[in-house]
Amino acid sequence: MTELLGLIFSPWTEKARWALDVRRVPYTFRHYKPLIGEPALRAKLGRLTGRVSVPVLTTDDGRVIADSADIARWADGRGDGPTLFPAEHEAEIARFIELSERALNAGRALSLSRMLADDEALADMAPPPIRRALGPLASRLGALGVRRTLRKYDGHTADLEAHRRALVEALEEIRAALALKARPDAGPKTLLGGFTFADITVSQALVGVMPPAELKLSPAGRRSFTDPELRERYTDLIAWRDALYGAFRAR
Known about the structure:
Helix content: 40-55%
Structural class: mainly alpha
Largest sheet: 4 strands, mixed
Distance between the termini: 22 Å
């Protein structure tokens, strides 16, 4: 059976899961455990050094795919459902993937920086058995993991103002792209005239503004990933994202 290794609270994992689900491709999901699961992940990817991350798909014939967009492309060739990568929209989808990545990278830095000031959210990062065993010290373990992630993706220092500008610029691009689309007779707007991977990837750009209800975060974790000021500024984009979930994401 095809297996997807990922994090239940990760928008990158959500991109892959949504693509597999909307194409109705059978798979099992396995939750990745950071730090303790890294040696096995490196062995699976054949990468002893450098950065490794999830999601990672292992197909039933043993192929290993380590990128959410590549996983979605693989899913698009199987199962049935909406065509996620129509040939006539390849360039536009690539542009929207890049736009989503800019927003997600900025949102991750901002959200994790907020988390460092929230002991409850930090403690929730530890697995429940470890959290129970460590008690108040669990937040310290969570802080180690968060700082490690920030170093992994953002170096030793984070220019939070630069990240905030990057996130706002990406959100404005999304708003402008949607403004160009006519409102359909039924259902939410889509970026390319029909539901594609462009909609999946761009919808995840809003995780650092206000995560969707479907993303598995604790209340404290959800608090860290919510930016109150941007949430109020981009209520239209949040409503669009939630409408996409309602129309195209199985509950």
